[in-house]
Design a protein that fits this description.
By secondary structure, the protein is α+β, with helices and mostly antiparallel strands. The protein folds into 2 domains: about 10-80, Glutaredoxin, CATH 3.40.30.10; about 90-200, Up-down Bundle (Glutathione S-transferase Yfyf (Class Pi), Chain A, domain 2), CATH 1.20.1050.10. The protein has helices at about 20-30, 50-55, 75-80, 90-120, 130-150, 160-170, 185-200, and strands at about 10-15, 35-40, 60-65, 70. The longest helix has about 30 residues, at about 90-120.
Length: about 210
């Protein structure tokens, strides 16, 4: 728990979204008291007049405090909640490495793995109607993680950090996008390790469990 006092907050998100789970898992891990408000993305929940008054960008997740302060963007919320905790390395360089993984996740991982998952699992598009680059670039991202996790148990340092939380969000459900995580054994073991640290259920490729 951060030394900075964090009054009870409200997290708005859709449980099907890996990005929305990041701040939720962070709050749970740090025992930060919060309320969860489910916002149905697929049925336009982020585009209602009520929600747009909270976040004009019309996106979840969103964190909101009783004094009216609101913070969007999954990694920004996660970092704010984790400030001063063991989820952020004390070492300056390791902290920079963690941030590097967070930027990489949003630019080189999520745009391919999460987008392909959405098109295949929620839009029910057949593979021949999905951009083949999504599979190729998603596999490349998993390959980068596989190389890193050949040498380390965690992405940064010797324990769980925000980098692990950010990247496990969509990696653990990559099978819903057609990715075979068993082809990346170090990543597969890391997913189980992070799920255990966060006390979240294993995402079973056969049963399609995502939460």
């Amino acid at each position: 728990m951060s030394e900075r006092e964090i009054t009870k907050l409200t997290l708005y998100g859709d449980s099907i979204s890996g990005n929305c789970q990041k701040p939720r898992w962070t709050a749970d891990y740090l025992d930060i008291d919060h309320d969860w408000v489910e916002v149905d993305i697929l049925n336009g929940g982020t585009q209602t007049e009520e929600f747009l008054a909270l976040n004009p960008v019309g996106q979840v997740p969103l964190a909101r405090w009783p004094d009216g302060r609101a913070l969007p963007q999954s990694n920004a919320i996660m970092l704010y909640l984790a400030e001063g905790s063991d989820l952020i390395p004390e070492d300056d360089f390791q902290r920079a490495q963690m941030n590097s993984w967070l930027f990489w996740e949003q630019y080189s991982h999520e745009p391919y793995i999460a987008v392909r998952r959405f098109k295949k699992h929620y839009l029910n598009l057949p593979d021949d109607q999905i951009d083949p680059d999504l599979m190729a670039k998603g596999r490349r991202a998993l390959g980068v993680m596989e190389m890193q996790l050949t040498w380390t148990d965690w992405l940064v340092g010797s324990q769980l950090s925000c980098a692990d939380i950010a990247l496990v969000a969509y990696t653990r459900i990559a099978h819903e996008g057609g990715f075979d995580i068993s082809e990346f054994p170090n990543v597969e073991r890391w997913v189980s390790r992070v799920e255990g640290a966060l006390s979240i259920g294993h995402a079973n490729p056969k049963e399609g469990i995502t939460l």
